[in-house]
Ferrochelatase (Neptunomonas japonica JAMM 1380), 345 residues
Amino acid sequence: MSDSIKTAVILTNLGTPDKPEASAVKRYLREFLSDSRVVEGKGLRRIAWLAVLNFIILNLRPRKVAKLYRSIWEDDSPMRKILNEQVTELQLLLQQNYETAPCVFAGMTYGSPSLKERLESLAGHGYQRVLIIPMYPQYSATTTAPIYDQVARFQLGRREVLDIRIVKSFYNHPAYINSLAQSIRLFRQSAQPAEKLMLSYHGIPKEYADKGDPYPQQCHQTSVLVAKALGLSENEWVTTFQSRFGPAQWLQPYTDKTLESLAQKQVKAVDVVCPAFTADCLETLEEIAEENKEVFHKAGGESYQYIPAVNSSPAFIAALMTLVQEQSADWLKLDNQADEKNNAV
Ligand SMILES: C=CC1=C(C)c2cc3[nH]c(cc4nc(cc5[nH]c(cc1n2)c(C)c5CCC(=O)O)C(CCC(=O)O)=C4C)c(C)c3C=C
Ligand SMILES: [Fe+2]
Ligand SMILES: [Fe+2]
């Protein structure tokens, strides 16, 4: 890195409540679900959604969802805990490889630690260059684009803007595919591999995809590449979409319906992995590892195993460093000694 220019990397994830309590969940859901990137609609549609959100959803959902959070909470929300671990591990790896490593921070789109406050604080501390890595391998207007929006709002009106780069997606990056394949391989080495590998992605409303959100295509591409890396034949894996919200149609095939139909077709064992999540969270630890396990068993399935997210596995942290290297090569100066050391191993 050039001597006098302070550079930071921010790992950015969606966000999560501060506590597993109804009031904290309400605050989080209000911020998240008020974003018109997440629930689209203009004019009357927007007014109707805000009425439903404020008068119905925010009165009924927080208590139910807080209970789900309590079932997975450790000393913090798993997403925030894992994001902090990813920050620590990436910082260590960068320090081993660079004379002057950039500083790595965490930032959430909704809730804390907030991306907006992180950017303000970095600017206040004289950082001029920032690489933001959204922790979503597949781009979606519902998740990645809000990060671009926050950066645009941050820059607006600044006399000297910060030099900010954002990694748009990494759904097909060989280092990410390798980290995912490795995590599946390691899991299947220590457990009996199931006859079917299910790759379950968070869904989005079908309407958004029909209007051009590239998310589903990127999910399918990730699946194809992972299956190829694992040497799976076509009938050994399936791509599905989870986490439906509201009455509209979402991306299909749905995870729960597919589990039921697999069990009905006498598939007795499935392994499930969630490649849209780089950190375990409510959607993986509760919805996939618990709720959907019950769905499969109730439908007659016998063995259901959830394969954890890539989290802070060495291969995923190495993938993050590769992204840093590629996206900010001109900002960084490789530590020749560390480089020689790595080559000698
Ligand atoms: C209402 C619309 C929603 C869209 C569109 C959506 C897209 C989307 N979300 C993720 C990743 C995560 N979502 C998580 C929780 C979550 N998601 C929604 C709704 C939408 N998501 C809600 C209401 C919630 C909260 C829980 C609930 O009330 O059911 C999480 C987990 C957060 C945690 O604290 O652990 C993640 C991660 C992606 C990747 C995505 C589109 C591609
Ligand atoms: Fe979501
Ligand atoms: Fe969910």
Observations:
- The first strand starts at residue 6 and ends at 13.
- The mean pLDDT is 95.
- The radius of gyration is 21 Å.
